[in-house]
Amino acid sequence: MSHPAPRAPTRAFTLVEILVVLACVAVLLGTLVGALRPGSSAVPVRGAQAEVAALLVQARQTAQLEGREARLLLSADPADRERYLRFLGIVYDGTPTAAGREWRAATDGITLPRGVYAVPPGAVGLAGTDSRLRGPVAMDYGDGESAYWFLAFAPDGTVSTAGGSPRVAVGRGRPEPGGAGVVFGEPDRIRGVLVRRYGAVVLLDGPRAFPEGGRP
Predict the structure, then answer these.
(1) Looking at residue 216, what is its pLDDT?
(2) For labeling, which of 5, 22, 51, 214 is most exposed (least CB within 10 Å)?
C-alpha cells in the first residue's frame, strides 16, 4: 500500500517581515499621493512630458507616412509671451516651390500647461537638463513667420544625433521681468523626453535620468 509523500513544511511570513512590507507600501503610497495630489507641481510637469512624448511619436510617424522630412517645432520667440517655450507643433516638407522648401503644418500643435515651459537649449545653470534641439530658424506655422527650435525626423524615422541624442526638457517656470526669458524655480523637478537615433522615445523622469554630456 502506497503512502503519499510527506509535504515539505512551508515557511510563513514573520510579523516583522509583514510590518516591513507594510511600511514600504506606506512610503510608496505617500510619495505617489504627494506627487499627484491636487495642486502638486509635479502634475502639470508630468502631463507636459506626456504631451511632448506623444507629439514626438506623431512627428516621426508623419515623416514616415509622408516620405519627407518632418520637424517638431518649439517656439523660440520671447516677444510672444503666450507661446514662447510653451507652444510645440509639427511640420513636414511639402511640395518644393521655386522659392525653396514649403513647410506644411501637420497638426494644430499644443500649448503646455500654464506655468510649465520647455527648457531652452543652453539654459544658464541647467546645461545638463536643457533641451537639445537645432535652430532657431524662421518658420511660418500659419500665423506669420516666427522663430523656432526644431528636431528633424528623416523619411525613414531616424533623427540627427550630432552632439548627442536630441531631447526636450520641461519644468515649472515663470517669465523674467521685461520678458527677457524664463526662470526655472524647481530644477529638481525637470523631466524630459529623449529620442534615440532610430526614433525610439525615452522618458527622462528627473534630472538624474538625463544622460551626462548629452550622450545617447
Answers:
(1) 44
(2) 5
Distance in angstroms (rounded) separating the CA atoms of residues 61 and 40: 33
CB 174 within 8 Å of CB 183: yes
In this structure, the dihedral spanned by the alpha carbons of residues 138, 96, 55 and 158, taken in order and rounded to 10 degrees, is -110
What is this structure's pTM?
0.78
Helices (H), 37-161: 42-66
> Could you report the per-residue pLDDT of 86-113, keeping only the tens digit for each?
999 999 998 776 666 789 999 999 999 9
With cell 528633424, the residue in question is 152
Burial of 203 (0-12, 13-18, 19+ CB in 10 A): middle
Q: Are 183 and 141 spatial neighbours (Cβ–Cβ below 8 Å)?
A: no
CATH homologous superfamily of 15-214 equals: minor pseudopilin epsh domain (3.55.40.10)
CA distance 79 to 6: 81
The answer to whether 56 touches 201, Cβ cutoff 8 Å, is yes
Q: How many CB atoms lie within 10 A of CB 81?
A: 10
